[in-house]
Each structure stands twice: as structure tokens, then as C-alpha cells.
Amino acid sequence: MNIAVVGTGYVGLVTGTCLADIGHQVTCIDIDEEKIAKLKRGESPIYEPGLEELLERNINNGNLTFTTDYKQGFKDKDVAYIAVGTPENEDGSANLTFVETVAKQIAETAQQDIIVVTKSTVPVGTNHRVLEILKENKKDNVHVSVVSNPEFLREGSAIYDTFNGDRIVIGADDQHAADTIEEINRPFNVSVYKTDVASAEMIKYASNAFLATKISFINEVANICERVGANVEDVAAGMGMDDRIGNKFLNAGIGYGGSCFPKDTKALIDIAKRVDYDFKILNQVVDVNTQQQRLLVDKVKDHFNGNLQGKTFGVLGLAFKPNTDDMREAASIVVTKELLDAGANVKAFDPIAMDNAKQFLDDRINYQNNTEDTIQNVDAILILTEWDEFKDLFNNEAFKAIQNPVVFDGRNIYSAEEVNSMTYYSVGR
User: Fold this and answer.
1) Residue 387's CB: how many other CB atoms inside 10 A?
2) pLDDT of 185-216, one tens digit each?
């Protein structure tokens, strides 16, 4: 199929590249000229394992092209994917400006019948609004239809998830459109679940909100475990053996972050409000996560008797999770600011997210080039992201040279056996 993908952010770029890799002719469109120039050279603007290799392969075989020209991008296309951002408004609702703008551009540019697929995460009712925009602005002889096809990609493993997903959700009120999108995705060999448009939109929000709820739940359990002398890891393992519960997303820590869970939980709360429903559980999930991101700072303050003035802390890990450079809603934003505001000095290092971190974090932070420099001459070490290289910290010669090390582990990456000879704080253990 001839496919256009509008938006070369995380979702759009991964979607377009993977569709090209299974044999479709894909043109990715973005108004950012610098980004498009970089992509034409096969350079990814985001860090995602395996993405640059796929980019290079499909650019070289002619399946993948990039442009800033909408007219050129939509020429002879059978399907157009909308994969632009839906940033959070101040009230927690999703900002649909970019989605609506793209829908209008597709309608005004399309010269032939076209199926518009909404990949962006959008509130219930958005796809019907997209269809209205298309019909209002299209040429008389052009037939348009709309499909909701939400993504379920995990940052850091998005390529793997595309080819090994649990399901592909297709929401459509037009059977031909639904069948066409199913056929496009057939080479992925992933189970397809078809439903109506509104249900597909809801599946995305409900899925992310449920996973966020699991995380906040186990973090609440962890906080109780610390008070009663239980080990949250043993508790989670025992819970996870129950097939009704499962063992995923039961890792206690300092909360969730990233581009999806924080935004989507708030958006679902807003959707509920708009139909006069108070989503009590989800409101608490958000509150718990906000509280949990400050947990490590509370432990630090307790250890130093509330006085952090002049203390120096080495922070390892800034991205919200490993294998990504995404800093959105990362716990490091909250932790480092609170340390600095308490009069402390902060040295910080992340293997991948350093450049992005500087756009999100306080300019008082002293950035380091490696783990060794970060942990030298500090009063304590804080682990905020579970990168693999930090899991071997205790074998690092620079760490071995520290007398009486103090470690605050926000991700529980070390076992009890590894830490029995040092001052060590974790979550729920």
C-alpha cells in the first residue's frame, strides 16, 4: 500500500519505519525541516534501540521517504496515518489542535479516496470529529473514512513491540476501512481485535490507566511493607503468581513517568468529568504517583536529619526509564529540584538522556560524563533510572574507593546480599 504518516515523533516514526519494513511504500511528513533533513540521512532524532538500523535499511531499499511538503506527501496515497502530538492542556484534557489541523490538510490535499487512521492518543469522540473535518473540506469526488488504531508501544522496546505485540486494535464504523487496515498489518502476524471507533479510543486510555494503577498500587503496598517489616519484592512475586493478577508492572519504585501514563491518566479523568463521572480510583492513582516521586527525597532528608545544606549528591539516571532518552515526567525532575531547593549540590549522569535532561532540569545541576565522576566526593548516591551499567555499580573501582558509602536506590536494582555492608535505602524493603 501507499501510505503517508503525519508526524515523526515517537509514534509516527516507529510506525512509519515498521510499516515500510514489512513492504509498504511509506512517506513520513513533518513540518520540522531540521528533523526531516536528519531523517533523510538515516539519523533518528530519538533514541530507540534498533530504530536507526531499520531507518537506514528502508531508506536504502526505497520503501521509506521523508518530506515537509504535504501535497507531495499525500500524492497517490491510499492511507494516511495521523501520529501527531496531543499534549496535555492545563486542565488535564488532550489538546487536539494538531490532530484537527492535519485532518483538514489531508482533506484539502487528497486527490483520491483515502482512509485516515488515527494513531495519536485521542479522547472518545475525536475520530468522529476528524471524519466531520474531512467531509467538510474534501473534494466532492473523494471518499473518506476514518479508523482508530491506537498504539501500545513501550519506549525502549517499541520496535520489538511492533513486531511482537499482544494485539492490534482497529476501531471503525466502515467495514471496508477496517478490513484494509487489518490487511496492511497482516505481515506483523499479531492478533487483530476489531471494534467500533469509540471503544477503540477507550481501550487505549483504559489500558494505560490500568497499568498506571498497578504501579501506584504496588507502591502503596511498598510503603506499608516498610512499616510492617515485609519485603515488597516477595509480596509482588507472590501476587504475580496468580494468573488473575500477573507479574508485570508490579515493580515498586519512585513512580511512573514518560509521555503516556501521566498524560493519559489525566486525560481519562477529564473524559469522565465531561460525562459527569468522578473517576475516584484514577484520581488517587495520580496523587499516589506524585507523592511517590518525592519518596527518595524524604528518605534523604531523614538520613541527614533534615539538613541538606552544602551536601553533595551523585544522581545516576535521569530518563524516566532505561533504554530511552525521554525526560517527560521523569522522577529526576522532582528529585533534583527538591535537593537543590534544600541547599544541596547535585552531580548527575545518564548514559543516553543527558542532552534532553538539560532542557528539563534545573541549570544548577553539575552534569558529569560518566558514573565514576558522578559518585566521587559525594555525601550519597541516588539511583533514579535502572540502566544496566548502574546495576554493576558495586564492582566499580570508583565506588569501592568510597568510605562508608550511602546509597538511595529508587528502583530496587540491588539485592540484600549486595548491600549488607553499606548504608542503603530502597523502596518497600
Assistant:
1) 23
2) 999 999 999 999 999 999 999 999 999 999 99
Residues 6+ apart with CB under 8 A from 280: none
**All three cell numbers of 195:** 471494534
Which positions are annotated as active-site residues? 260
pLDDT in tens, 125-183: 999 999 999 999 999 899 999 999 999 999 999 999 999 999 999 999 999 999 999 99
Measure CA 141 to chain center.
40
* Three cell numbers written together for 249: 508492572
Closest CA to 101 of 72, 60, 70: 70
417 pLDDT band, cuts 50/70/90, is confident
What pLDDT score does 92 carry? 86
Phi, psi values for residue 64, rounded to 5° = -130, 125
Buried b (16+ CB within 10 A) or exposed e, 126-138: bbebbbebbeebb
Mapped to the 3 state alphabet, what secondary structure does the chain carry? Answer: CEEEEECCCHHHHHHHHHHHHCCCEEEEECCCHHHHHHHHCCCCCCCCCCHHHHHHHHHHCCCEEEECCHHHHHCCCCEEEECCCCCECCCCCECCHHHHHHHHHHHHHCCCCEEEEECCCCCCCHHHHHHHHHHHHCCCCCCEEEEECCCCCCCCCHHHHHHCCCCEEEEECCHHHHHHHHHHHHHHCCCEEEECHHHHHHHHHHHHHHHHHHHHHHHHHHHHHHHHCCCHHHHHHHHHCCCCCCCCCCCCCCCCCCCCHHHHHHHHHHHHHHCCCCCHHHHHHHHHHHHHCCHHHHHHHHHCCCCCCCCEEEEECCCCCCCCCCCCCCHHHHHHHHHHHCCCEEEEECCCCHHHHHHHCCCCCEECCCHHHHHCCCCEEEECCCCHHHHCHHHCHHHHCCCCCEEEECCCCCCCCCCCCCEEECCCC
Q: 197 Cβ partners below 8 Å, 6+ apart?
A: 127, 128, 146, 147, 148, 171, 172, 173
Instruction: Name 30's Cβ contacts closer than 8 Å, sequence gap at least 6.
Output: 6, 7, 8, 12, 36, 66, 68
Tell me, what's the pLDDT at 420? 82
